[in-house]
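Priority: medium. Attachment 1 of 2:
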């Protein structure tokens, strides 16, 4: 179906790194910049953004295109990224020196290119700046190790635990802009819609064909209620920051038919900007 491989990454900070907003923005953008070396377009400088891939004769051999990495002029709706960062443990602030650890979660067939991601992080440390006022060579890749691998089919097909109530704790959930600046509200129906859409997108790009991606996983009625606790909208920073939902939401009702899907969403991440590290949550089943 679809494998989810988690890698633990540790950077050795040699000179101060400053994150003035969400650290995932800096790490993801630096990673993609380093991955541009795999674009096979001739005559493009290392820092030059990749333009439309339409008509490129090298497209079949291009790792950059195969991984659906960003182009400056997208031909259509941007493809789902083959990875997401797990950076909830990092802080917005200054790292003077020492070790800085986070996670890289890679989906399905993109796992065959794990070595490419490792080389990209090495290149970021040697060539590109990271953080505000950063300079090249201000960190080294200390370790890049596979932590575990989970098959979504294992999660989706296992017998569901009986569940009449659960609580989700979101760290950074980015919803469509039209849902921002309103009272915190995440109906279970919409949560399942986000999760099912994410599963379908990932399966279509990085997984094998499976009926699970098109299954009717959302029941017509589960008699649910929703209650927010300690939940609000926050802002990642100034300039290029974004509003996100942070806090806890409780659901009650016959949740047994959807508990496996919600658990799968925890591994995939949901909502927008998942590659930066948005869309993570923890689950507490009562």
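Attachment 2 of 2:
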């Amino acid at each position: 179906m679809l494998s989810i491989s988690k890698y633990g990454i540790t950077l050795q900070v040699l000179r101060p790194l400053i994150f003035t907003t969400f650290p995932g923005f800096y790490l993801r953008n630096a990673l993609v910049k380093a991955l541009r070396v795999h674009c096979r377009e001739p005559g493009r400088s290392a820092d030059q953004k990749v333009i439309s891939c339409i008509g490129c004769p090298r497209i079949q051999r291009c790792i950059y295109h195969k991984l659906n990495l960003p182009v400056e002029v997208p031909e259509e709706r941007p493809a789902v990224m083959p990875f997401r960062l797990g950076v909830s443990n990092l802080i917005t602030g200054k790292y003077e020196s020492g070790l800085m650890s986070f996670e890289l979660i890679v989906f399905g067939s993109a796992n065959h290119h794990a070595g490419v991601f490792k080389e990209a992080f090495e290149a970021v440390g040697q060539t590109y700046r990271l953080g505000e006022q950063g300079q090249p060579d201000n960190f080294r890749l200390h370790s890049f190790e596979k932590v575990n691998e989970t098959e979504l089919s294992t999660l989706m097909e296992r017998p569901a635990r009986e569940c009449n109530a659960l609580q989700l704790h979101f760290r950074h959930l980015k919803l469509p802009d039209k849902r921002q600046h309103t009272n915190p509200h995440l109906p279970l129906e919409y949560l399942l819609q986000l999760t099912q859409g994410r599963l379908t997108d990932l399966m279509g790009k990085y997984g094998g064909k499976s009926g699970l991606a098109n299954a009717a996983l959302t029941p017509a009625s589960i008699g649910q209620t929703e209650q927010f606790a300690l939940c609000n909208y926050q802002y990642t920073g100034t300039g290029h920051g974004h509003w996100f939902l942070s806090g806890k939401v409780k659901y009650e009702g016959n949740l047994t038919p959807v508990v496996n899907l919600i658990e799968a969403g925890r591994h995939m991440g949901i909502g927008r900007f998942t590659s930066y590290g948005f869309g993570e949550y923890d689950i507490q089943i009562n």
